[in-house]
Design goal:
By secondary structure, the chain is α/β, with parallel strands linked by helices. It contains 6 helices and 4 strands. The longest helix is centred in the last third of the chain and has 16 residues.
Length: 168
């Protein structure tokens, strides 16, 4: 792999289900571009780092195992994030590449939700990647103020992609 010449995040993309390749979403280009756009729009981020993220595109069966084992919810979900830091303020500045965590996305759940919500699959998938990435930086939606902050940033990022507000 050639040396990194920009401050764009490093994305390790893993295909754990053939459904993603069959979807023709162009995930190899789409996912890194979504992570880069999200990083560019995060306020007050650590300076002098290049975040490294692993994104695993999987299926409902595997994400259900993870959801059961890590969240005690024995059902599939759309996206899970496993951050290496609890808050963005804990990420050290000025040290170059920093692994910040993993994002896992389940094909069947995201596809089903996009149909149920009347949204293009690509738009809903894009939202899940942005949402998962923000979780890696410590954004959350447990309390109303946290949810408001996270959702407004998601909406701002998605608007740059001409994706309508997913919370309307």
């Amino acid at each position: 792999m050639p040396p990194k010449t920009s401050n764009a995040p490093i994305v390790d993309l893993l295909f754990d289900s053939p459904l993603w390749g069959q979807s023709r979403l162009g995930c190899r280009a789409l996912v890194p571009s979504l992570i880069a756009l999200s990083w560019k729009n995060v306020p007050d981020k650590p300076k002098g780092i290049i975040p490294e993220v692993t994104v695993t595109l999987t299926d409902d069966a595997y994400i259900q195992e993870l959801n059961r084992d890590h969240r005690t919810k024995d059902k599939p979900t759309n996206v899970l994030s496993f951050p290496n830091f609890e808050h963005m303020s804990e990420i050290p500045s000025g040290i170059g590449e920093v692994p910040i965590g993993d994002i896992i996305v389940a094909f069947e759940t995201v596809k089903r939700e996009s149909i149920e919500q009347g949204k293009p699959f690509k738009d809903h998938f894009s939202h899940m990647i942005v949402h998962g990435f923000l979780h890696l930086l410590g954004y959350d939606h447990i309390s109303d103020p946290q949810a408001e902050e996270m959702e407004s940033l998601e909406v701002k990022i998605l608007k740059k992609l001409d994706i309508p507000n997913p919370y309307n």
